[in-house]
Q: What sequence folds into this?
């Protein structure tokens, strides 16, 4: 709860930064998110210790874990002062996700599959949450790119006064986060497939919405990365692709999770 | 022992007068020695740049007498015999210290907030220090001035932004490209502004320059001057795949680059951004090309508008800088506190550069 309050404060601070055109380097945003990260980590650790597993089993935990990975990734990327404004772009999303996660109905006890080892299940979920965190931050960097690119195109002074990295660097950040996310997603899905093979009748889950959706998301991000590597796709279209892909994940993750019998035994 | 300053600057006198009072660097140590031997100053620093000639001194004389003596020294030293009106200003404490701090911060410069003067001031101080012409008063004042300049630079936006077309173009390139060191620049037309802009980009590390012009000889001469290479005007499009920044300044009456011509060339670039700087009047590049993806087109008006806005932004910061300077000067002078003393030099014209 305290972490979400700090995400909210950071969001309000972001509005001020945006209105001032991101003209001054600020540590406030970074420190607010660092504070929120501290509370968030403590809360997750307490829950993990209480449940004796990685807290990523139900929607509440998965959302909280994705948020945690987004902030963790930001805190690393934000060590470069020019990329610190990513926090201002990420805060509104973090706050919205935090409020969403705190809704009581999400934190329902989740059935478990005793035939699967807790360690591998936790690792599978953790890899996936980390990958969504990387995708989330890549979409935030892509929004930053789109904003700065538009200001430069329209010759707006905001583009000059804003202490932001060059658009080419932002593009590289988007790309690196997408590749990192794809690697983590591949590992997570690979572990999921490995676990699936240990179930009694794995073919029964071939049409599970979450499996189909996961394959679709993987193909979507793989397509983006290939377009970038093979066809040097860059600029606005690439940034829009990164934003669009994550919006798709955000809008469909919860629904497919709820429909999945594999994930709701 | 008050600190006083007398001098001339671009605010008070034209270059025809300033150049007569300029000190060659080799002459400064001897001039400082003369000042001290004459008993005019115990400590002294001479600052001589294209925009100002100033003598900062700590003297046992009271401020008024010290300023008169310094002015006489300055006039005699340069054998200046024409009548003086308001060209020379003289300031006693605390205005002299305020002035020193303002100069260090670039607030008294022709280009508000520029940093070159700080380097020149440091050099002038070092020269006096190495020759033993400074003491505790000027040492403290100058070192504090350098600190104040650093403080003002970090705490205010007085030095932010670019105020010339060339430097705006560099800043623009830095907003688009990760590193200028990997960038290849093409100049179309061998005009003066184009050359200056290219030099600004080269000074910030641009990898290489390609020059093209209707007169190949002029292109070749400029390319040699800039350490680049020349290409025939008919062939410039063939270089397009490797070029990242184009500065166009031809006197062509029509567009030399339009959307129809650029669009197929962009395919060679594999989505790398392209910065087009059109400083020609009439314009060389069709404005429509700005709608193409990864293309950023700026014309001379755009660059000048940005430079003007930066300057306006700096003007806004002046009040904040003055407040800092006032506080730092008061802190420096507090141990020597006495009634403020502004000199009135009868035989010299005393003006306040501020």
A:
């Amino acid at each position: 709860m305290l972490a979400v309050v700090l995400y909210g404060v950071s969001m309000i601070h972001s509005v001020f930064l945006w209105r001032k055109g991101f003209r001054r380097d600020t540590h406030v945003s970074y420190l607010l998110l660092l504070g929120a990260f501290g509370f968030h980590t403590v809360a997750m650790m307490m829950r993990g210790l209480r449940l004796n597993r990685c807290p990523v089993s139900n929607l509440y935990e998965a959302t909280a874990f994705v948020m945690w990975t987004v902030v963790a990734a930001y805190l690393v990327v934000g060590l470069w002062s020019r990329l610190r404004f990513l926090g201002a772009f990420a805060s509104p999303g973090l706050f919205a996700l935090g409020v969403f996660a705190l809704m009581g109905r999400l934190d329902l006890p989740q059935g478990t599959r005793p035939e699967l080892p807790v360690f591998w299940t936790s690792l599978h979920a953790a890899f996936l949450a980390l990958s969504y965190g990387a995708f989330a931050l890549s979409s935030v960097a892509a929004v930053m790119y789109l904003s700065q690119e538009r200001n430069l195109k329209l010759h707006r002074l905001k583009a000059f006064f804003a202490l932001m990295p060059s658009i080419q660097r932002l593009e590289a950040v988007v790309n690196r986060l997408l590749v990192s996310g794809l690697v983590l997603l591949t590992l997570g899905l690979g572990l999921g497939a490995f676990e699936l093979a240990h179930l009694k009748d794995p073919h029964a889950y071939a049409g599970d919405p979450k499996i189909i959706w996961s394959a679709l998301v993987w193909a979507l991000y793989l397509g983006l990365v290939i377009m970038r590597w093979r066809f040097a796709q860059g600029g606005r279209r690439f940034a829009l692709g990164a934003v669009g892909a994550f919006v798709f994940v955000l809008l469909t993750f919860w629904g497919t999770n709820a429909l999945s019998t594999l994930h709701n035994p | 022992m008050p600190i006083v300053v007398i001098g001339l600057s671009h605010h008070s006198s034209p270059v025809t007068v300033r150049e007569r009072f300029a000190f060659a660097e080799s002459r400064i140590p001897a001039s400082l020695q003369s000042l001290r031997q004459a008993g005019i100053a115990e400590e002294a620093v001479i600052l001589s740049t294209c925009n100002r000639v100033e003598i900062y001194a700590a003297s046992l004389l009271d401020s008024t007498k010290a300023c008169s003596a310094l002015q006489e020294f300055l006039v005699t030293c340069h054998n200046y015999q024409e009548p003086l009106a308001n060209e020379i200003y003289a300031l006693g404490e605390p205005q002299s210290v305020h002035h020193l701090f303002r100069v260090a911060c670039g607030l008294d410069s022709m280009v508000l907030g520029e940093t070159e003067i700080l380097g020149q001031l440091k050099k002038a101080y070092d020269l006096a220090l190495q020759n033993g012409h400074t003491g505790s008063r000027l040492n403290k004042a100058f070192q504090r001035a350098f600190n104040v300049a650093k403080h003002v630079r970090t705490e205010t936006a007085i030095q932010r932004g670019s105020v010339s077309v060339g430097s705006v173009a560099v800043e623009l390139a830095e907003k688009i490209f990760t590193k200028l060191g990997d960038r290849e620049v093409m100049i179309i037309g061998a005009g003066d502004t184009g050359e200056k802009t290219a030099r600004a980009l080269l000074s910030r590390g641009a990898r290489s320059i390609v020059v093209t012009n209707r007169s190949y000889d002029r292109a070749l001469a400029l390319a040699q001057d800039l350490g680049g290479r020349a290409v025939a005007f008919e062939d410039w499009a063939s270089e397009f795949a490797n070029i990242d920044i184009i500065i166009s300044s031809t006197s062509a009456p029509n567009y030399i680059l339009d959307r129809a011509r650029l669009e197929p060339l962009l395919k060679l670039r594999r989505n790398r951004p392209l910065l087009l700087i059109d400083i020609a009047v009439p314009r060389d590049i069709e404005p429509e090309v700005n709608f193409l993806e990864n293309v950023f087109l700026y014309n001379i008006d755009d660059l000048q508008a940005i430079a003007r806005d930066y300057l306006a932004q700096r003007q806004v910061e002046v009040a904040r800088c003055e407040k800092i300077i006032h506080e730092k000067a008061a802190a420096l002078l507090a141990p020597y506190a006495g009634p403020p003393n502004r000199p009135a030099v009868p035989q010299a014209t005393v003006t306040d550069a501020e």
Observations:
- Chain B has eleven helices and ten strands.
- The CA atoms of residues 205 and 234 of chain B lie 28 Å apart.
